[in-house]
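User: Hey, quick favor. My workstation is busy. Could you predict this chain's structure for me?
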Amino acid sequence: MAQVLERRTTGWVVGAMAAVQLGLLHFGLPAWPCPLLSALGVPCPGCGLSRAVTALLHGEWRSALTWHAFAPFLLAALVLITGMAFLPEAARRRGIDAVARFERRTRVTALLLLALMAYWLVRLLVFRGTFIDSTLS
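Assistant: No problem, here it is.
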């Protein structure tokens, strides 16, 4: 995460893209489709996250966690990435350093990525029909 925070432009782009995607969903307009699902018919590890974050922003926790259990983590990451991009340089540098220390100490980013992959495999292998049907709706 600290590496993503290093580039201010990345924060602006990520924030803008997330705002567009979530805005499209909020207004019931077609949002960007999942490339993996479109190309191969297999939902990616992030399928359902946009709808889950939109539900979370509306305060619909149960619905959000039904769409994707990682929605709170994504929302927190989006807020962090976008927020850090707008901070003055000194505050941004202190924040990046704090995130880097936290990541080195806890390995939280690697653990979350491993957990995301395990979550995706369970959804894909155990709940395949429900998972694929929910991503297509």
